[in-house]
Amino acid sequence: MQIEHELLLHAARTGDLDVLNELLKGNADVNIKDEKGCTPLIIACDSNQYETAKLLLENKAAVNTQDLEGNTALMGASFKGHLAIAELLIEQGADLNLQHNDGRTALMFATMFGKNELVQLLLLHGADSTICDGKGMRAADLAVQQGNKKAQDLLGA
């Protein structure tokens, strides 16, 4: 079982659809977690493996699972700027307003790291820009702090 888990996590990271399909035929658990609490979906999204993420979702991967730090697949996609993956996750019901252990949301991560296409996408789909993180900062405050003028405009800062 441990080898199957390692293969599944590796296939998610590398986008090895052949291995992933074989494991899924054997009823592999798509919601297993590694030592950091990351699921294959979180890993695939973080690694920009769109087809892998799609296949995992088609096989009932839980879209809103959080790792030990509170990260979701959508937060990872927002942090890294993976627009197509973020769109896929949103289509599959990703919660736009889940908060990381420090209170940050996907919108905040996109704002902090200048991923303005993601900021726009998240806002378009109803992300709550009034949520505050653990330091009392909203996404607009983070945009100002980072000097992200485009996000400031999008967030009305």
UniProtKB/TrEMBL annotation:
Pfam families: Ank, Ank_2. The keyword tRNA-binding does not apply. Keywords: ANK repeat, Repeat. ANK repeats lie at residues 8-35, 36-68, 69-101, 102-134. Gene3D superfamilies: Ankyrin repeat-containing domain (1.25.40.20). InterPro entries: Ank_Repeat/CDKN_Inhibitor, Ankyrin_rpt, Ankyrin_rpt-contain_sf. PANTHER family: ANK_REP_REGION DOMAIN-CONTAINING PROTEIN (PTHR24201). This is Ankyrin repeat domain-containing protein. It comes from Pedobacter polaris.
